[in-house]
């Protein structure tokens, strides 16, 4: 899934501080460090192009970052830029098609 100003993104954010393709969320399969599927966020496009203002997780600029419950994702360093809060679904809920649970705040 991708976030950006482009209508081709899974989540479109209309804000001048957000790049056309600002960041991507990738669902990863369990591995040695994670016993359940988990998400990572990558700045820019999967092809390697970076966003103009950077992607920040919990106040730190990232290129690729594993996401945890309640992580704050910003589209630039400035606290006035839009942000998302990454929320992990509760275990007792069954989801047939995984989605990225987020809240959008300007």
Topology:
Layout: E1 2-4, E2 11-12, E3 23-28, E4 38-43, E5 55-57, E6 60-62, E7 64-66, E8 72-74, E9 83-86, E10 102-105
Parallel strand pairs: 1-2
Antiparallel strand pairs: 1-3, 3-4, 4-7, 5-6, 5-8, 8-9, 9-10
Structural class: mainly beta
Quick one: how many beta strands?
10
Rg result: 13 Å
Instruction: Report the mean per-residue pLDDT as an integer.
Output: 83
Largest sheet: 5 strands, mixed
Helix amount, in percent? under 10%
Give the strand order, joined by hyphens, for the main sheet: 2-1-3-4-7
Helix and strand pattern:
EEEEEEEEEE
Q: Measure the end-to-end span.
A: 20 Å
Strand-residue fraction? 25-35%
Q: Number of helical segments? A: 0
Q: Low-confidence segments, ≥5 residues, pLDDT <50?
A: 92-99
What would you say this structure looks like, in words?
- The protein has 106 residues and is an all-beta fold.
- It is built from no helices and ten strands.
- It has strands at 2-4, 11-12, 23-28, 38-43, 55-57, 60-62, 64-66, 72-74, 83-86, 102-105.
- The strands form two sheets. A five-stranded mixed sheet has the order 2-1-3-4-7, with no helix packed on it.
- Strand 5 and strand 6 (60-62) form a beta hairpin.
- The chain starts with a strand and ends with a strand.
- The model is unreliable at 92-99 (pLDDT under 50).
């Amino acid at each position: 899934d991708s976030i950006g100003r482009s209508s081709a993104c899974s989540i479109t954010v209309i804000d001048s501080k957000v790049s056309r393709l600002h960041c991507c969320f990738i669902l990863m399969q369990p591995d040695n460090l994670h016993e359940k599927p988990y998400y990572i966020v990558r700045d820019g496009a999967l092809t390697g192009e970076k966003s103009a203002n950077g992607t920040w997780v919990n106040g730190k600029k990232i290129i690729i970052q594993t996401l945890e419950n309640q992580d704050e994702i910003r589209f630039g360093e400035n606290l006035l830029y839009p942000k998302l809060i990454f929320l992990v679904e509760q275990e007792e809920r069954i989801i047939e098609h995984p989605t990225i649970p987020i809240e959008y705040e300007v």
